[in-house]
Design brief:
With 121 residues, the chain is mainly β. Helix content is 0%, strand content 49%.
């Protein structure tokens, strides 16, 4: 089921991982999206400038954004993934059909997106 929220996360950074956790990627200065097999980190609109609209859901319920910035697999052994923040345990959660989910992320802007769209299958 498609979900949406507007949020201004601390450090303008959010994570996608299995509900039971994952191994976050090592930070790389200037990188907008980083990933490990079990966690994806992605940059948002600068927190001091306003919220980022996050939309997540299955691909058949998602309208892709203008810039595809990530496409890859994510380990989801519990078949439930979450979006979390540096200081927020859970922003959104979504069930997935398999223990490895196909994740695609679109940005509304290449550097500071005010809309991030995520499909999971």
């Amino acid at each position: 089921m498609r979900q949406q929220i507007k949020i201004s996360p601390v450090n303008s950074l959010l994570f996608i991982e299995d509900v039971n956790g994952g191994t976050p990627p090592e930070p790389v200065w200037g990188a907008k999206i980083l990933s490990t097999p079990s966690c994806i980190s992605f940059a948002c609109f600068p927190e001091q400038d306003g919220p980022t609209e996050i939309t997540i859901g299955p691909s058949n319920e998602i309208e892709p954004g203008p810039l595809l910035v990530f496409e890859g697999d994510l380990e989801t052994p519990s078949r439930k993934l979450i979006i979390s923040g540096v200081e927020i345990e859970r922003v959104l959660s979504v069930d997935v059909a398999h223990q490895k989910a196909k994740v695609r992320i679109w940005y509304s802007h290449p550097k500071w997106p005010d809309k991030v769209t995520i499909s999971v299958d």
